[in-house]
Amino acid sequence: MPTTVIGIFDQFQPAFSAKNELLAAGFLRSQVQLVPDHEVPKRERDATPHTDPNTVAFNIGKLFTGLFGSDHTQHSNVYADAVRRGGYVVTVDVADESRRATVEEMIRRFRPLSVEARSGEWMQQGWRGHDPNAG
Question: pTM of the predicted model, to two decimals?
Answer without folding.
Answer: 0.71
